[in-house]
Design brief:
elongated; single chain; mainly alpha
Length: 200
């Protein structure tokens, strides 16, 4: 049984996720916030279900991030660094932070978006949300090759197509048509030839 207003509000969020009725999801999210304004996931639902643009979504996600910070509290926030997703209480905050970073990118506030994504990986380097793929796709077109290289190195064993083609592109941008960049491209093509076909 939920013991606190926040736990009761979070239970309503779970109910909201379980329903296919959009209006009911919105109603449950609003009810959750009336019980506890610290329910970050309720803001995430409202951003996803009611916002018609990034301009409308950004303040809702920002409120969710602030709510998540309040719910976690400074002590747990400090203690859980490095394993955030493993602590259930941090997950609503991380979902709001992901939504906020995406909205900021869509609003062309790219430095802020990148900083938020990097913060997510600092808090949770295991990256259960897969934010590294989004971040790599932001760092490369932003010309932040050094940071992209550090990110690629941090997850060097990742075999996803995004990572393999990202490594090849990064090497090509740093070294040109080198033996290493050709080898990385060949490895990417072997792993997933469909990407090249799609791009071409």
């Amino acid at each position: 049984e939920p013991r606190t207003p926040l736990e009761r509000a979070q239970d309503l969020v779970y109910d909201a996720w379980d329903t296919s009725d959009r209006r009911e999801r919105i109603r449950l999210a609003q009810e959750a916030l009336s019980i506890s304004p610290d329910c970050a996931d309720a803001y995430v639902i409202l951003a996803q279900e009611t916002a018609r643009s990034a301009e409308e979504a950004e303040p809702l996600y920002a409120q969710g991030v602030a709510a998540g910070e309040r719910a976690i509290g400074p002590e747990l926030f400090e203690e859980a660094v490095g394993q955030f997703w493993g602590v259930l209480e941090t997950r609503p905050y991380m979902r709001a932070l992901e939504g906020l970073s995406q909205a900021l990118w869509a609003l062309d506030r790219r430095e802020e978006a990148i900083a938020r994504a990097q913060e997510m990986l600092r808090l949770n380097p295991d990256d259960n949300q897969g934010m590294r793929y989004t971040l790599l796709g932001w760092l490369l077109p932003a010309g932040r090759d050094e940071e992209a290289g550090a990110l690629l190195e941090a997850y060097a064993d990742d075999g996803a197509a995004t990572w393999l083609y990202g490594q090849a592109l990064h090497a090509f941008r740093r070294e040109g048509d080198s033996r290493r960049s050709r080898r990385l491209l060949t490895e990417a093509l072997r792993a997933n030839p469909y990407v090249a076909g799609y791009l071409l």
